[in-house]
Amino acid sequence: MFKSIRWKFIVVYFLLVFIAMVIVGVFIIEKFEEYHINQITDTMEERVKSIIKISSAIQSDSWEEVKEDIQNTIRQVPLGNTERLYIIINTDIPSIIASNNSKAVGENAYEFKALNSKLIIDALKGKKVDAILPSLDKLNGKDKHLAYPVYDEVGKIKGLLYITSDLTYVYDTIDESKSILTKATLLALFITVFLGFFIAKSITGPINDVTIKAEKMAKGDFNQKVEVKSDDEIGQLASMFNYLTEKLNKTLSEVYREKSKMDTIFTYMADGVIAVNTQGNILHANPIALSIFNLTYKDIESKKFDDIFSPLNEKITLQYLKKEGKWEGNELVEVGSEIYRAKYAPFKNDKNQIGGFIVVFQDVTEQQKLENMRKEFVANVSHELKTPITTIKSYAETLLNGAIEDRDLAIQFLSVINSECDRMGRIVKDLLQLSNLDFKQTKWKIKSLSLKKVLEDAYMKMKMAAEEKKQSLNLSVEENIPNIYADKDGIEQVILNIISNAIKYTPDKGKIDIIARKREDKAVITVKDNGIGIPKEDLKRIFERFYRVDKARSRALGGTGLGLSIAKQIAEAHNGDIKIRSEYNKGTEVDIILPVEDSV
Ligand SMILES: Nc1ncnc2c1ncn2[C@@H]1O[C@H](COP(=O)(O)OP(=O)(O)OP(=O)(O)O)[C@@H](O)[C@H]1O
Ligand SMILES: [Mg+2]
């Protein structure tokens, strides 16, 4: 409590007033005493001088003879109650010849207790001397003594006038004054403490207010405002505080807004982000980063970045970056079946040095897949075209080398060359069609078509091929199936492709059913066979370009592996789809789904 400004203020006030009162008191008392003593001294001196002046007896040179007269003079002189006058004659042993103190007359001046022998000795040397001496008859009382030498005509000291005066009343007055001053001091101190309390309160009140509100601010409540009651320094402090609060509030909410914005970006961005300091500790990792690398917040706190990432890719570890001195770049990181591009860049610390680096992990699995597919496709195209070219070239060379002479052999060779050319032609035609479908260059002649009619035409076209393999090919179309709305040639190509696949990949004497019905707002054409089927692992890749389950077999059957991808793309261009269900060695079911006329 006594540490507070209020109490310090009161104590300082108290001490100041106390010291001032004590100094003033001592000074006044001293001056008062000096004034009174001087006054008494002057009066005594005046009295002595006037006695000498008016008394002829004292003026006479032979005091011994006029003793009685001198004594009479003394009786006549009006002396104060407490004043004692002694006439001392200067003989070998100075004695008192007259006095208003009857006991003193005739006594040896040196030995008379009421007088001071030292003063007498000094005065007899020709000096007027005075002193304040302790009173004989009053305890603690004081008397003023004055010894005044008197000269005869030839200038010799004939005696002394020795006067004493009791100073009791002076000291009583001084004591009285001291008591008044003490009381005044006490009263002043009381008022000081009282006023000091209120003045201090008026000063410390607003400061306390600021302190309390600053404490609340420290706890996070920034909506604090202090009342500005004056325009003095404290008022300025209060308004400065308010200004500061407002500024702080504004800045903090801006910072908070920015932070939450950043947090949201970090949390919801599709890429994983990890920040690492130069000690290799992970400073921050967003939820995506945690899920990519299957980490928990605990792992982040306990593990070093390099421990986690060196098995994945050495080139993004802190150790490697430090060694190379290259803090910016990108690397691929494979996690299971996913591929991430790790882009890293340094960040600076408050001393403008490298404080660590941030790595952003971007999922490039799809991109990478597409890239691989593209490369695979180019390789496939080249391979598919190279095979017939090689065959043609070797047969042509053999012919040139003489085989042409053998007519039967030449015809056989030329027919191989012819069929390989057809094959190349087919591949190029299919690729061209795919490219047109990719770039949406195909012009569709969309119109209402009777599905029944389309299917019957296709059935007729494929019948021969099925008969050749002694397969039973059956068509069943639901009654009242609605028309489809499509391009006739496109849809026919799709249906023929699927039926021809069923025939191709079903052994002799197999059974192929073509069933058409309406399901919800779609027409579904199911081509069902009991052929070789497709293994499960190949099923998901079956629509990829050039993908064939058994390349050699398919090629032997004249397939290029483009048929299904073309069919699917045509179906999709008609807002339809193709779905395949298959069981290896049991059979395959292909659904061609097309929108019916009403729903278009
Ligand atoms: N009904 C089916 N039964 C079993 N396998 C099939 C069937 N349909 C397709 N496949 C498999 O899917 C692969 C891809 O078929 P796709 O029609 O795309 O090519 P293809 O028939 O080999 O050649 P083409 O381009 O001449 O049609 C085939 O090679 C075959 O392995
Ligand atoms: Mg096919």
From TrEMBL:
Q: Which UniProt keywords apply?
A: Kinase, Membrane, Phosphoprotein, Transferase, Transmembrane, Transmembrane helix, Two-component regulatory system
Query: Which biological process terms from the Gene Ontology are attached to this UniProt entry?
Result: cellular response to phosphate starvation
Spans traversing the lipid bilayer: 6-29
> Catalyzes what?
ATP + protein L-histidine = ADP + protein N-phospho-L-histidine
* Signal peptide (from-to): none
InterPro entries associated with the record: BphY/WalK/GraS-like, HAMP_dom, HATPase_C_sf, HATPase_dom, His_kinase_dom, HisK_dim/P_dom, HisK_dim/P_sf, PAS
Tell me yes or no: is Transmembrane helix among this UniProt entry's keywords.
Answer: yes
Residue ranges annotated for the HAMP domain, each copy included? 201-253
Q: Does Glycosyltransferase show up as a keyword for this record?
A: no
Q: Where is the Histidine kinase domain?
A: 380-598
Pfam families associated with the record: HAMP, HATPase_c, HisKA, PAS_9
Going by the record, the broad EC class of this enzyme is: transferase
E.C. number = 2.7.13.3
Q: Which residues form the PAS domain?
A: 258-311
* Compartments it resides in: Membrane
Q: Which SMART domains match?
A: HAMP, HATPase_c, HisKA, PAS
Q: Where is the PAC domain?
A: 314-376
Q: Name one GO molecular function term.
A: phosphoprotein phosphatase activity
Task: Name one cellular component (GO) term.
Answer: plasma membrane
Q: Which PANTHER family match?
A: PHOSPHATE REGULON SENSOR PROTEIN PHOR
What's the protein called, per UniProt?
histidine kinase
Task: List the taxonomic lineage.
Answer: Bacteria, Bacillati, Bacillota, Tissierellia, Tissierellales
